[in-house]
Amino acid sequence: MRGRRFLTIFIVLWLSLLTVSLGTYIFLILAPNTMNVDGSYLEFARLILPFMYLLVIDIVISLIATLILYFFLYKDENKLTAKLTALAARKYDSPIFQETEMGVYAGQQIGEQIERLRAMLQNMEMALQAKTVADEANSEMNRNQLVKEERQRIARELHDSVSQQLFAMTMILSAIQEQADNMDPVNRQLIGKVAAMVDQAQAEMRSLLLHLRPISLTNQSLAEGIEQLFRELETKVKINFEATVTDVQLLPEVENHLFRIVQELLSNSLRHAKAQIIECHLYEKDRNIYLRFSDDGVGFDTDKELLQNGGYGLKNIQERVAQLGGSTNIISFENQGTLIQIVIPRKMEGIYD
Question: Which Pfam families would you find in this protein's record (predicted)?
Fold first, then answer.
């Protein structure tokens, strides 16, 4: 394509110069000597030789002029093509747009039009990106809200139906056990087993309801959330809950992580520990955040539980702590309770207020 353009420019220039040269030759050389031509070969050569010189000079001049014109014209065209290519590729900040001078071929008006087009496309893309981000955020919020509402609905139904029935069964079994002295040993043993199963079912139900709670704090600090959670459980479970928490300033997402960890620790204790006392301490010391959780329950073999059963949920807790750059230390012995200490270094300032 460009080769044909080059040839076209060359031919036009050459023919233009040839026309001028031919006219010059006729009027200045051929016409004055026409009357003196004797028809010999030498005389003909004498007349035609100047024309040949002019023809060669025309070709050389046309070629040089074509090269110069081609260079300037297509330099501008290359610049224009580069800008259009950058626009098509959405590279609106390309260095090519810093060159505002478009040259003679493209013209300043075309350069201004391209700059307006670039600004318009850039604004449109930024608006589209902002809309996409907003739509994704709204979609995520809607999903989270739906999940939250469904969790609350299930929790209400479980509390109003299964939990109440388990409580009623506990009351009935308590009344029956009061008459245990009048029963034969076999029935008395069966009643005891049923009562133990109902107690375990209630513990499982409390743990499930705890998991169905909102996993994030709402208009509360971490300390307030933990204290409220312990107060609520004290009214529902025959366990002594003790919480000593310091109002440590953390980013909301970090507080939510720690609050969820406390929920999972409580759930594990309610389901497995058979504890009478559950304690939770949250404080800051030596630029570290400490979370100490303990119970006086049945305990377990830490190596065995972590390797075989995943530590009845402790693996999830360890993963959450690791996401915060912290460490988890688990101390537990069978029939001697459990102590879990979580340490999060305060030096990770990027996640704290």
Answer: HATPase_c, HisKA_3
